[in-house]
Amino acid sequence: MQQSRPGKPDYVHGYTPREGERLVDQATALTEFLHSGTRFPAGGRVLEAGCGVGAQTVTLARNSPDASIVAMDISEESLALARQRVAAAGFTNVNFEQGDLFDLPYAAASFDHVFVCFVLEHLSDPMSALEALRVVTKPGGTVTVIEGDHGSTYFHPENGDARRAIDCLVRLQAESGGDSLIGRRLYPMLVSAGLREVRVEPKVIYVDGSRPELIEGFTRNTFTAMVEGVREKALAAGLIDTDTWDRGIAGLHRTAEPDGVFCYTFFKAIGVN
Known about the structure:
This protein is α/β, with parallel strands linked by helices and 273 residues long.
């Protein structure tokens, strides 16, 4: 996950092995949901900015086998994991490079397309990052951005403590300089960055007892695991007490029961340079 000097907050979820697993769980559960329609043409040069551990890179490589993909991240440790993941999947159309979103090591108009997924939410200056990415995109090329919005969460059974636990994550991310509600801002941000023909597609993920793969892959292993991951930070910051936290997490797990329902909205934005 991209971390950088001028716009760099702490990555609120941490860099534990469990967080790496969660990112892969998320990418696996949402592969077709988020990547549908994302195909880059043969011969195109594509930059995946902030590739992290390569959770999305494998899908990009699979969907665009004849494109040349540069997967960039500032963390050498993350890049090493991403290299392993892509190599294990058997793809050879990806090159990995260390780089900083706020000091990109590329000339203007270096790429036909740019792809950014779950990165801007962690930056205190996402507009500067978008503007820098537009500069390295060729005229007529595209910038694709995917982000979530924790404020879009709703579920059954309703549970006030679960909402308090989610709010802890929102507040912690805001205090560290990020914005976990950024999905709703993508359209004005891309327009302000100078991109044209911007279109945003809300992608609502709906999970109930008829979708057991999403109960495990998304409700439990992605969203609830993400909230659980900030427990110690939330308690240390005095945002919530232990009993309320435990009831909230139990409430989120309750939505994963056969009669539970969980909904969340992602936003996928595409603009033309």
